[in-house]
Predict the structure of DNA-binding transcriptional MocR family regulator.
Amino acid sequence: MTAEQLISFARGAPSLDIVDVEGLKAAAVRAFDADPAGVTAYGTSVGYRPLRKWIAEKHGVQADQVLVTNGSLQADAFLFEHLVRPGDAVVVERPTYDRTLLNLQRMGSELHGISVQPDGLDTAELRKLLESGVRPRLAHVIPNYQNPAGMTLSLEKRRELLDLAAEYEFIIFEDDPYADIRFRGEALPSMLSLDTRNVVVHASSFTKTVCPGVRVGYLVGSADLIADIAKNATSLYISPGMVSQAIVHQFCVSGDIDRSIETVRAALGERARVLAESLRRHLPQARFVEPDGGYFLWVEFPEDVLVDRLAPAAAERGVAVVKGSDFVLDGGRHALRLAFSAVTVDRIDEGVRRLAEAVEAVRS
């Protein structure tokens, strides 16, 4: 199977046609022209200071509440290393981002998966867990267009989660890289913006709005927390990459990021719609919630479809998918995550048709 023939619903990344390559090239030139000393020097562990200031203004916080990192996974790692010890209880969504699961498992956390509903994390289920005596150090939540399920946490549940965190004294880790990639509906306020009791640490990334190759993410939290993590960051790498952060800063202050977001929104909104239509046409037995934004759609199949068999059968037919079992502590044997971000509209229906063939093959 050649690269041209393969249709991949596996990777949560934008296709090249919706990356503003020319804008990034121009931003790179401006970055070197405007601040050659800052771009080429080590910098500080808190990141490129002009970008740090821009992020702080975006979120309505002080600059000393922001740490800019090499991608959001590094932001996650810094926070986990700072807050979580082996044996600590940590709440995660079920399903959730596979790398978050792996990283927390490696740290020896006691993980508790809470179901995701069409309006986000099941807060009633979480309350029962808390009332049973479990005292988590942290609850990891992807509130907007969740990876992998595509769901969005409702405003009511955001407020309820904030109340639970204050009552039971745990930190909400609001992992929010998809918020700006909204196709439909109204934007909801972040839990960071609603937080009056200092229970939220927020993370995001420029991977989904600029491009993955820049590897720029960030954390927003209390100034004390950020200062402590910055000390660890200094020991680890002196500073993150100043070149990429300076390019992202120029891309942001020029307004190119707003145009980039509009391009990505429009393209991915169409791709999500076409994917949902194709699933209804070719796989009417599949269950899914059409997302209002983001990169992913979660598909559940009848119990006679095992994804351990389906994924290789799809690969034989030139379709790459990711098994649902990768995103949960246990289960997910009848589910797939489909990333529509990198598949152009003209290939989506063919990809779903091939997937339907694979489903028929494993059922027979």
Notes: The CA atoms of residues 119 and 153 lie 5 Å apart. The chain has a mean pLDDT of 95.
